[in-house]
Write a structure and sequence with these properties.
Blueprint: E1 2-4, H1 11-14, E2 20-22, H2 28-35, E3 40-44, H3 52-66, E4 70-74, H4 87-94, H5 114-125, H6 136-151, H7 161-166, H8 173-180
Parallel strand pairs: 1-2, 3-4
C-alpha cells in the first residue's frame, strides 16, 4: 500500500497493482482511514520545518488507533546526539514509546567527504570536478550573501540572450517543475 497527499502522483504504483490511499500528515482523519487494516507502516519525515513534530504525532496516533503493529520512521542519523538544528524535530519523533519497537537503528554506509565525492566523480567521469572546503563562517557568509542578492534581484537577467544561444525559448519555472515531478 502507498499513501500520499496527492494520489495522482502515485498513479504509476497504482498501475502496478499497489493499493493507493490519500493521507495527509496535517489531517488525522485521513491518516486513520488510510491506516485501516495496515499491519506495518514506514513513514517518511514531513518536509515542513517547524511542523514535523505535530505532523509526526498525528501519524503515530493514527497508526496506534488503527492497530498498526510496527511503525518505522526515516529520521536523521544520530538524532539523539546531533547538534544540528534539524535533528531536534527528528529526536522528538523518535521518543514515542517503550520497548523493542522504539529502538533506533542507525543505517548508513561508509562515510566520505565532499572532497572525496568530487574526486570520485572526476575519476569516473573523466572530467575534473573541484571542491573547495570553506570554513563554516565563510560558507555561512557566502550563502547568506547569495540569498540576499537573489532576494534583491541581483541574479535576475533581462533579455533574450539565452534563447538566442540555444535557439529556442528557455524552459519556464512551471515547465521545469512539471518535468522534475
Amino acid at each position: 500500500m502507498a499513501l500520499g497527499r496527492e494520489t495522482a502522483r502515485l498513479a504509476d504504483l497504482a498501475g502496478r497493482g499497489v493499493t493507493v490511499r490519500q493521507a495527509d500528515y496535517d489531517d488525522p482523519e485521513s491518516l486513520r482511514v488510510a491506516f485501516a487494516g495496515a499491519e506495518k507502516l514506514m513513514f517518511v519525515s514531513g518536509s515542513e520545518v517547524g511542523r514535523r513534530v505535530a505532523q509526526h504525532r498525528n501519524v503515530v496516533a493514527a497508526a496506534t488507533e488503527a492497530g498498526v503493529g510496527l511503525v518505522v520512521y526515516t529520521s536523521i542519523p544520530k538524532a539523539d546526539t546531533s547538534s544540528l538544528i534539524l535533528a531536534t524535530e527528528h529526536r522528538a519523533t523518535e521518543q514515542t514509546d517503550e520497548g523493542h519497537t522504539n529502538r533506533v537503528y542507525e543505517l548508513g554506509g561508509p562515510a566520505f567527504t565532499l572532497g572525496e565525492l568530487a574526486a570520485e566523480v572526476s575519476r569516473q567521469s573523466g572530467r575534473e570536478v573541484g571542491y573547495l572546503d570553506l570554513p563554516v563562517e565563510r560558507y555561512v557568509e557566502v550563502l547568506v550573501d547569495a540569498d540576499r542578492g537573489a532576494a534583491e534581484g541581483e541574479l535576475y537577467v533581462e533579455g533574450d540572450d539565452l534563447a538566442t544561444l540555444i535557439g529556442r525559448p528557455p524552459v519556464t519555472l512551471a515547465e521545469a517543475i512539471r518535468t522534475a515531478l
